[in-house]
Design a protein that fits this description.
By secondary structure, this protein is α/β, with parallel strands linked by helices. It has a domain at 3-104 and 154-236: P-loop containing nucleotide triphosphate hydrolases (Rossmann fold), CATH 3.40.50.300. The protein is 33% helix and 22% strand. It is built from twelve helices and 13 strands. It has helices at 45-53, 79-89, 97-100, 107-113, 127-141, 147-151, 160-172, 190-207, 218-224, 242-247, 252-259, 262-265; strands at 3-13, 18-29, 34-38, 60-63, 66-69, 72-73, 90-93, 178-182, 210-215, 227-232, 235-241, 310-312, 315-317. It has an eight-stranded mixed beta sheet with strand order 7-8-9-3-10-11-13-12, with helices on both faces. Strands 1, 2, 4, 5 and 6 form a five-stranded antiparallel beta sheet that branches. Helix 4 packs parallel to helix 7 (160-172) and helix 5 (127-141) crosses helix 7.
């Protein structure tokens, strides 16, 4: 197991507010897999990634029963040792890549900065040319066709899709074991979105790089991921292999998510989409117990108590009244 997180809680602390934005969430990643982390906007997906990489501000407090990275508990290491492991083994790309790149520096300069000196062979005076060769190699690997032009361009001169490819090149320059892709195709046109997702799949297959795909695009996860975790308002409601969850979801929220997408729900023409009333609750007004309760069609009195995780038939779910189970 590459990553094993158990009962992660992220608490927001201010003078007027203290709330668990993520409530006892668990997630496991197998080495070499693509794992989808799915949820509506505001469900805590990006917050989980930032808690994992240690990039949250002081107003957030992170605790967990364990956060094992290849057998080492990150939460019990010194800050220096934890930062060494994260910077060496974990890389992250974000949505709106053009906003993440430095507008005052060329693509070549920014990708070059991410390349470790140990990867450059030859003497000191040949290092500059070797570094440029390595940048070109990375741009080619991520599918940039006009790599020479891209090398000397500034971010504002590139499309959003090309900027994302540059971000991926920067991320993989250190050969990380885990690539966290946080909404990498958000607001992109369909053709560009497919290019980016196929690139992530190719990197996963050819470099044995584990990918955590954070998205609200359930259709993309169903096509490219091996496993998925469904997150609702900071609580993990169900996780397991994509095939098993598509075939037989146990949590009502998972079932409704799948049925809301025609290709997954297999709806006939002119059939109404399945939807949940309401929206994800804000942090200031989180429900007690199961946070889906006020919107759940199966909710009863017991749902004011947070359900425990149950592992059965290849996946894990948290629900007092699961569906699709034989009695």
């Amino acid at each position: 197991m590459l990553l094993d997180v158990r009962n992660l809680t992220v608490t927001l602390k201010t003078e007027s507010l203290q709330v668990d934005a993520i409530d006892r969430m668990s997630l496991s990643l197998r080495a070499g897999s693509i794992h989808g982390l799915v949820g509506e906007t505001g469900s805590g997906k990006s917050l989980f990634a930032r808690a994992l990489t240690g990039t949250l501000s002081d107003k957030w407090h992170v605790r967990a029963d364990r956060m094992f990275w290849q057998g080492e508990d990150l939460l019990r290491l010194s800050d220096e040792r934890r930062n060494q492991i994260i910077s060496r083994d974990i890389a992250m790309i974000f949505q709106e890549p053009s906003q993440c790149l430095d507008p005052t520096r060329t693509v070549g300069e920014q990708v070059s900065e991410a390349i470790p000196n140990k990867d450059l062979s030859g003497g000191f005076f040949s290092r500059g040319s070797r570094r440029k060769e390595r940048v070109i190699e990375l741009l080619k690997r991520v599918g940039v066709k006009r790599y020479e032009q891209c090398f000397s361009s500034y971010p504002h001169e590139l499309s959003e899709g090309l900027c994302q490819k540059v971000m991926i090149a920067i991320a993989v320059a250190r050969r990380p074991k885990l690539l966290i892709a946080d909404e990498p195709t958000d607001a992109m046109e369909s053709a560009t979105k497919i290019q980016i997702l196929r690139l992530l799949q190719k990197l996963n297959q050819s470099k044995d790089m584990t990918v955590l795909l954070i998205t609200h695009d359930l259709e993309a996860v169903s096509q490219y991921a091996d496993e998925m975790t469904i997150l609702y308002s900071g609580q993990s409601v169900e996780s397991g292999s994509v095939k098993e969850l598509l075939k037989n979801p146990f949590h009502p929220y998972t079932d409704i998510l799948f049925k809301s997408i025609p290709k997954l729900g297999k709806l006939e023409a002119k059939t109404r989409l399945n939807t949940l009333p309401g929206s994800v609750p804000p942090l200031q007004h989180l429900p007690t117990g199961c946070r889906l309760g006020p919107r759940c069609p199966n909710a009863q009195k017991e749902c004011v108590v947070t359900p425990k995780s149950v592992k059965t038939k290849g996946h894990i779910f948290s629900c007092h009244y699961p569906i699709n189970q034989s009695k």
